[in-house]
Every structure is written in C-alpha cells, then in structure tokens.
User: What shape does this take?
Amino acid sequence: MNFIETRGNDGEHPLEVSFSSAILAPIASYGGIYVPKALPELGDDFLQKHVNSGYKTLSKDVLAAFEIDIDPDVIDEALSLYDDFDDASNPVPLAKVKDDLFVSELYHGPTRAFKDMALQPFGAVLSSLAQKRNENYLIMAATSGDTGPAALETFKNRANVQVACLYPDGGTSDVQRLQMVTEDAKNLKVIGIHGDFDDAQNALKRLLGSATFKAQLKEKNIHLSAANSVNFGRIIFQLIYHIYSYLELVRMESINFGDKVYLDVPSGNFGNALGGYYAMKMGLPVEKILIASNKNNVLTQLIKFGQYDLREMSVVSTSSPAMDILKSSNVERVLFDLFGAQRTKEFMFQLDSENHYELNAKELSQFQSIFSADFCEDEEGKKYIKDAFADGYLMDPHTATCFKAYDTCRDKPLATIAYSTAEWTKFSPTIANALTGETDTHDLDALKSIAKEANISIPAIINELFDKEIAQKTIIDKQDIEKEILAFL
Ligand SMILES: *Cc1c(COP(=O)(O)O)cnc(C)c1O
Assistant: This one.
C-alpha cells in the first residue's frame, strides 16, 4: 500500500510514496506528513482468528494487512525485539484495576516507557532499509524525555544510521536524562538545549525542512529522517497493542467478542491516540477514545469546543512532562482522515501563522463522535496515584491523567482500557510525593522510598544509571543546534 500527504501535493513531491520512502523521508508537501492511502479493513474474522494469538503473530498479520514494502525477514527481526521485554510471551500485560477498568502496560521494554513499543522495531526496520539502499541517515529526534532514550537505545551501534537527539535541559526527569547522557556509542549525539520541548520540536521541524541544512548533509552523503511520531513507521507499530489489549479482554472473558470498549489514552503528540483511532477505523469495536491531558490542555479544548488556540497559551511544566506539548503533531492525521487535505492544509497553515484554528459545528460533532477529553492537574493526578496505590496498583503520573478521564469522560458503563505509558521508576519524585508527602527528593531517594513503600525492588537497569559515566555533555542555545550537529557528523 502507498502513502499520501496530509496537506495535498505541491507538484514537486511524488503523488504517493511507498512505506519505506515515507519512513525514510517523513516530511511531505507543504510541511505535511504521510498517511496510508486507505486503511485495511480487518473485520471480525481477522479479530476472531487472533483472539488467542501472541503479540508477534498478531503484529505480523496486522502489518501484512498494510501490504508494506518491507521484507518478511526484516519484519521478523524487528518483532523479535519484543522478546527482550520483561515477558517475551506477553510484552503488553493487562492489569485489572477495577471491575471495568483495565490498564494496558506499554512500558515493559528497555527504557521503561511506551516509546519502546514502536521505536524498538522501527529502529531495526529503518537501519535495514538504509543498509539495503547503501545510504547513510541522520535521525533527528526531539524529546520531552521518553522518545530520546528509546531512540538512542534502538539505534545505538546500528549500521548506516546516526542519531542527534535534542532534549530540553531541565525539562526531563533525572532518570530520563541519565538514560540519554550515559549512552556512549559513536553514532549517537545527545544535545541539551536551553528551552522547552516545543522549542526542541520546532528546531527539529525547521532543520527537517531546511534546504541549506540538507545541502550540507548531502555534501557529507547523509540523508535526513526523523524518529518522532510524525514518522508513520512508529504509528504502524502503535496500532497493534490497541488490538492486542482488546483481544486480551476477550481472552480474560472480561468482555464478549464484539463488545465495545473505551480506549483511554494519556496524550501529548497524539501518536498513541492516533493508533487507537486507526485501530477503530480498521474494525476494532471501540465506543470512544478518551484523550487525557495535563494542564497543557490544548487537546481538551479542541475536543470539547473545537478550538485549537495557542494564542494565550505557553507550555507549562507539569509532573507528566512527556505530555507538556502544545503542538500535537498527529492531530493532523485525524484532521486529514475526517476532513481531507485541503481543509487540513488550511488548519495547519492557520496554526502556523495565527496560532489557532477552529472547527465548524459539523466538524466538531464528527470529532466528538469519536473522541472525548479531559485534563488532569498535578495535584489531582497525585490523588489518583495515591488512591490507586491504596487499591494495590502503582502507576506513574502520565497514567494517572487517564484515571481522571475514566471518571469524567465515559457516558456508558463499558470496559475501559487505560494505557500506562511509563513505569513508576521514570517519574519517581512525583510518585513518592503522592504516596508519602515527601518533597524535593531526587530520583534516587524517591526510587528507594517507593520501593520500600510498595515492597518491591528498584529494577537493576534503573539503579545502574546512577553509577554510569556521563558520556554526552553538550548543552547549548537553540540557535547553535545546526552547527553542533554538523560538527558531530
Ligand atoms: C510519549 C509519551 C506520552 C504521549 O504519547 P503521544 O503518543 O505523544 O500522545 C505519554 N506518556 C508518556 C510516558 C510518554 O512517553
């Protein structure tokens, strides 16, 4: 299957591209991104057949339905990376927290956050394409804390790929920062910038679109790509776990096959939620997708009132920093799917030039037939963490936001799959504060006190970070990013 562009075609880009082209060069005409020309219909037969399938078997068949131009042996190698998750036979466990609330844990990979779900296989696919084409790639990533470690982990020491990873200095947890700055491989460059995540993401977008930067890379014989969820190579792996978790509910006999469920997604760049949206369009029985945000509640405003309005907003730091995002890239793919390329281009251009756009009444009601949204402030989030812990479930502050959406966004008593996007180890000071009231703790102390409170041990892969040597020491202003990256190459 081929891929088309969310903002229409400018006469210079091809009208449609293969999957491999879309992931190697993810930016399309007018700054748009790529989407599948049509979504495959899975149908009841497909789902029924996979009720008892393992994660890899299901993945293989979902990918096959997209008819992507990736060799089966490469797909096999990519999916084999799920074998290194905590439980190779079940990389995405589903925990029952209340009668109708189930948590799909997406964090059992090497960097303890949900980004591994897609980036692990994506790294293998991309590196193999680069080798096959005998080309060298620079992968740029902007991170609010979890994409960075996951991208570095998946690409480290892979052939034909170098990574430059931008993170907001001070905008991540200690553990996230250590996961990045202790990565010591010749093909990795980690750059802290003075600014917030949107600054990092804007710098990334500017470089990806910059002709002069590309020309300089060309001289070095290097192509440019991105590992953020603008890349469809991530999205395709993110629709699978929605299907898997639904089938798990059927397997557990918590629902009957065909029953509708709510998907409840802590959202930032909207890649996770978009995966759920596509799964729904492909035939997964979903009542609605609940979009949970933190105080950076631009998605709630969009879904409740049809307004994407950044004019009075600036990013605020919260205790769920992976969701401290105002320009949520993957909303564009939903706009395209619902309203087409012309309208999407209008919206996106207006967002760039005037910092807002507004859905009309009909468009808004289309949105609301699929999504419902609410946001959760830090204090409320801590209460959810504390209450869930009292009920025997330990969760991180991102996951907590969807516990609020579970309370406020459902209008039917249907089973709900909430997604847990990070392990407790990644955001320990907030959790320790929620559980014990202690403040100003550094990650290491907080980890210890949670471990004690919950009577569990700190995973070795987290503990070891604190003794590792810092290999990546660059912290610069945004205007120096280009220079720094060229020097690294
Ligand atoms: C990336 C991330 C999110 C947001 O996911 P999106 O796909 O960008 O919406 C939420 N929680 C955690 C812990 C993350 O790492």
In short: The mean pLDDT is 95. The CA atoms of residues 217 and 486 lie 8 Å apart. The longest strand covers residues 161-168.
